[in-house]
Description:
A hairpin with a 2-residue loop joins strand 3 and strand 4 (100-105). Strands 1-5-3-4-2 form a 5-stranded mixed beta sheet. A two-stranded antiparallel ribbon has the order 6-7. It has helices at residues 3-12, 26-31, 37-40, 72-85, 107-115, 130-142, 149-162, 167-174, 178-186, 192-199, 205-212, 217-230, 234-242, 245-253, 263-277, 300-310; strands at residues 50-55, 59-60, 91-97, 100-105, 120-125, 281-285, 291-295. It is flat and about 65 Å long. Among the domains are: 3-128, Conserved hypothetical protein from pyrococcus furiosus pfu- 392566-001, ParB domain; 263-310, no CATH class. By secondary structure, it is of the alpha/beta class. Keywords: Chromosome partition, DNA-binding.
Amino acid sequence: MSEKNEEKNAAAATPKRRVGGLGRGLNALIEGSYEKKSERLGLVPHPVNSIGLIPVGHIQANPYQPRTHFDQDALQELAESIRVQGIIQPVTLRQTGTNSYQLISGERRLQASKLAGLDAIPAYIRKADDQQMLEMALIENIQRENLNAIEIALSYQRLVSECNLKQEELGERVGKNRSTVTNYLRLLKLPPDIQIGLRDTVISMGHARALISIESMDQQLALFRRIVAEELSVRKVEQLVRGGAGGETEKKTTNPTEPVVPVAEIKRTERHLSERFGSRVMVKPGPQGRGEIKIAFDSVEDMQRILHILQPS
Length: 313
């Protein structure tokens, strides 16, 4: 279960009541008294394998955090839940000095707690060296539900290369069999355009696995473009690959004099048009420079609004 879902489910299970200060989550259980703020934020070290209430100003970010982007709307929702319920699940820290801590896991909870205006948050203190910090951060990251296949593959690769884990050991750490780990790592051998397409959900993991079995990078890219242009199913792609269609696809779809629109450019155009019209916009490139743009609408009124935007001023 992802950290976001854990916080939401725990918050939903308890009657909501707004309180001042730190909320009534684990904070109340740890210290028991909200009046003794000076004691609660006392500048004293906490023993390893204990849970304590740690001032947020004493917590440094995890330098090995594999994720750099966090959805701001989701953080605001979590912050509101924390304002009402307090912290349900403590973050995990390691102590780096007197009154100095480094985050191991719980980046979203820490950021949301700052947004909620908390002075201190409950934290589990444990011992960890730099390699263990990286390993724990990566494994927590992998266990999230909203990671795409490329993010998972990159995390696996870091565990193998930076934590010196063999694929069998990695599988044990993340609860996956060796073949699953291998399939993810193989994705990183695909051309960058295909990796971007997988990351942006232009194609699925099934499409990517079929493309991996094609030896020629040019043929991989050609079939990838055909998948996007014709919206081919995974089964259809697998049939084409088994039938040796990689070379034929290259001949049919690749024209040296015809520019190919990069996937990243298509996604940027979709985002720009979606913001312009306030509706979802899909750009579908086709062969020979052709293609189509689809604008979604929810009602007749919404369609009229879009048509009004399209009218020349």
